[in-house]
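Protocol step 4 of 6: structure prediction from sequence.
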Amino acid sequence: MATRYQFISAIVLSGFAAVGCGGDSDPMTSTAPVGIPTVNVVAGSASIGATAGTGAAPIATAPTTGNNPTPAANTPNPTPTSTTPPPVVAANVACDSMTIVAKHCTNCHGATPMFGAPMSLMTPTDFTKSSIVTPQQTVAQLAKVRINATDNKRMPPASMPALTPAEIDTMNKWLDSGATAGNACAPTVPNMNPMVDMPGSKPNPAANDPSVKCYDFHAHGATKDQPFKVGVARDAYYNFTFNAPWTGTQYAKSFRTKTDNLKVIHHWLLFKEGGPVADGAMAVPSSGTHPGGQLIHGWAPGGEDLILNDEIGMELPATGFTLELHYNSQDAAAVDHSGVEVCVTPNKPKNIAGISWLGTDAIGGASATGTCTPDMGQPIRILGGTPHMHVAGTHMKVEILRQGGKIEMLHDAAFDFNYQRSYDYQAKNLMLMPGESIRTTCTYNKPVSFGEGTGDEMCYFFTLHYPYPALTSTGLGQVIHGANTCGVL
């Protein structure tokens, strides 16, 4: 039975370098909280929507006069003033700071802000404007709070490399000065909005292999060549169904995201169904469920294309497919034609890959641990993985329990629900041998219990591997999450 738990399996296949931008849940860039998403469980996949921006770093509140407080939300955005003259900084600090901003910030806060980030941070002037969240503060004042934060509201996101101490020092001096233009230079790192001119975009595999054919699955209107009318949409999920445009069993060699309206798309998921579907149909999903469907790929902001090497492929029969898109839009006129290009070959590769659920549903307290010991007594190649928790999640550790008692660390990093990242292990030639296990430990910022809503918690490490589905173990987890589950319950 499918319920809505399913987004991260998508990112686990999205190039293993995914990091989402703030979206509607980023308290620095959001104008209003977003509704709580639901989570769907289908056989081997997971999905989440954007969430309310909880847990933000403390910020100043609107000033009050006597017993008549004036809420910030009811006041116009004034130009913040200060009676204290800003400190004098070195002439090159503005230039150096804007180079740091271009390197770490403009994927979301670019010339065209993306994924819910309402302001551009391309010029010093952008930092002198009033903050949308707290109009009595400038963007510079709030930016200083965020880059110096030590919790999972830090900027850059906790799942991305932090600014170096030298970069923080430079930025602090510049932000304290009021973010004056000084001799600000053109950024040495260009503005790169995700999936527009993002480094790491992969070439089409069909270019060098005549057996590879590529097909588009995308959001559409009444006909497939018309864009979909998104309009105003908050955490809205839409299903677009397609019958396979190929015959016989094919093997996926690549999934390349084709974005259209980057201001409204949050993520997409592609499901393989158990049989034919209504080709070209569109429907609002009921709780985002996909009965009989199996997630095979997906993308979220920051994700890269997935190109499988010559020896790896994913088996795709000539069946039906469902493309689910998640939108966040405040524009009544918004339209979108985003989707995915799937490139396939009839030539069966040496290795068939797929994803499995690892982790635990047994959550009660400030931490939770689950152990996966596969039933199949054969070596398993681990290609990549994606951590998934909710807003209380702060850290995940994934360990390989080797024979003889040795413990090998696979993943040990901070977690941020708004900036979920995937990790690529293909270059490590990482093998799980018979009798060995993978232990996943999740840490939360308060006692929590398992549940689908973001006020509840999860603890999953979605793992790309081959041979598929060797990374499985029998148990209740398979009944809930599908056959490709290992040790969840």
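Step 5 (inspection) to follow. Residues 73-176 form a domain with the Cytochrome Bc1 Complex; Chain D, domain 2 fold (CATH 1.10.760).
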